[in-house]
Design goal:
single chain, 248 residues, alpha/beta, TIM Barrel, 11 helices, binds 1-deoxy-D-xylulose-5-phosphate, binds the ligand NCC(=O)COP(=O)(O)O, pyridoxine 5'-phosphate synthase activity, transferase, EC 2.6.99.2, Pyridoxine 5'-phosphate synthase, pyridoxine biosynthesis
């Protein structure tokens, strides 16, 4: 396999913390899940410290920063509170995401085109930490071009609409949007990642997109881990990604 078709797996451990927060217990510990994921072949660990702290807590992020063998991808809203916390943690990767207090999950991409000055200022400030800054956006040419203009080196394309498609035709259309988004991002010199809602039955066509760098996957992995264990869940996802990428 060449470097060109190697697709990385970022394991999102947020929903291990969701289970813990549901009862206010000390278990299950997302830090243990992260270490197990690394042993099973994860290329990085993703966490989203939400404003409402519904899953990941500051304690998790601080501990992860100390113990991870791979790297942290820290997802955050564009708020002063999060900027200050990111400056303390200095994660290797930072991903700016939109956040709405009441949403069930991250429902759309960041509107970079509609607030270029604000996002440019955030990207410049965070880049000083030495972190690779990424923008979580829809596969929309306007947003991809704006991400390039504000100086972000990387983007993560939101795959939620593809994952939530109700018919094969709709899924094919959404996949095509992602494929075109990846191609445009690469043409502009961006690192292109993708994620959200990917699972064992829909990940392969995305992993096969030429040039895609990393897939961030969480909810489906945590769900599958209930039945097969966390390490095995990561191993199975990684196998799917690696083999799809090799064919892509
Ligand atoms: C930004 C994003 O997509 C992730 O952080 C992920 O989906 C985590 O789960 P929640 O959106 O449920 O917090
Ligand atoms: N940025 C997307 C992510 O980290 C994982 O999303 P999901 O697999 O939990 O939907």
């Amino acid at each position: 396999m060449t470097e060109a078709n190697r697709v990385l797996l970022g394991v999102n451990i947020d929903h291990v913390a969701t289970l813990r927060q549901a009862r206010g217990t000390r278990y299950p510990d997302p830090v243990k899940a992260a270490l197990d994921a690394e042993e099973a072949g994860a290329d990085g660990i993703t966490v989203h410290l939400r404003e409402d702290r519904r899953h990941i807590q500051e304690r998790d992020v601080r501990l992860l920063k100390e113990v991870l063998q791979t790297r942290m991808n820290f997802e955050m809203g564009v708020t002063e509170e999060m900027m200050v916390f990111a400056e303390e943690i200095r994660p290797e990767h930072l991903c700016l995401v939109p956040e709405t207090r009441q949403e069930l999950t991250t429902e759309g991409g960041l509107d970079v085109a509609g607030q270029e000055a604000r996002i440019r200022a955030a990207v410049e400030r965070l880049a000083k930490l030495g972190s690779e800054v990424s923008l979580f956006i829809d596969a929309d040419p306007r947003q991809i071009e704006a991400s390039h203009r504000v100086g972000a080196p990387a983007i993560e394309l939101h795959t939620g609409r593809y994952a939530d498609a109700h018919t094969p035709e709709e899924a094919a259309r959404e996949l095509q949007r992602i494929q075109e988004g990846v191609a445009l991002g690469l043409k502009l010199g961006l690192i292109v990642n993708a994620g959200h809602g990917l699972h064992y039955h829909n990940v392969e066509p995305v992993a096969a997109i030429p040039g895609i760098n990393e897939l961030n996957i969480g909810h489906a992995l945590v769900a599958h881990a209930l039945f097969v264990g966390f390490k095995q869940a990561v191993v199975e996802m990684k196998q799917l990604i690696v083999s799809a990428a090799a064919k892509g």
